[in-house]
DUF3159 domain-containing protein (Micromonospora chaiyaphumensis), 227 residues
Amino acid sequence: MTSTPERERPSGERPESLADLLGGRRGAVDATVPPVAFAVGWLAAGLWGGVVAAVLAGAAVAGWRWRRGDRPRSVLIGLLAVCVAALVALRTGRATDFFLLQLVSNAASALAWIVSIVVRWPLLGVVVGAALGQRGRWRRDPALLRAYGRGSWVWAATYVLRVAVFVPLWLGGQVVGLVVARVALTWPLVAAALAVSWVVIRRSLPADHPGLRHPVAPSDADAAPAQ
């Protein structure tokens, strides 16, 4: 009697995408609404107007996410980031410094993604593996490890691109330009990174690979009965 392999996907089940696993839309809301509110408040009433508008917008986003059932820790981190950005701007007296935290965060993220690939712990695998409850099992699958490494380069490139755009605007004191860049390099860039990295992963995996949910360790192949 031939048994059905455990890793076979149930008939009719829709293949998951990285968008399903990573949920990029909520992060994009956090990243765009407060900066837009800051720019509107700054244009209308100066630095204090921008800070108040950004904090109120951040609180509104946090309340919306709370009602949607997001984890309290995630909600508070998003609101805290807005408050810290506002405090930095008030401390320096420069409106563009509201975006300094985001600039530093993107630079650190670019470095983290690149280092993770070099040390063979690609962050895309870490994030997706955690979302799927796999811990480190995906690393024992050479095909998945290679695919996640290639897909992680896509995400590293997004952070490098943001830094390359943000730094000249920040140095030039371009508040409105920073807001436009932040919006343009959040929603569209996240969507593009999700799509491209998903294609990279799918094309990097062998045709007979069972998918992200089912890492294949070398011992699995060795243990398979000879035909």
Summary: The two ends are 14 Å apart (CA to CA). The first helix runs from residue 18 to 22.
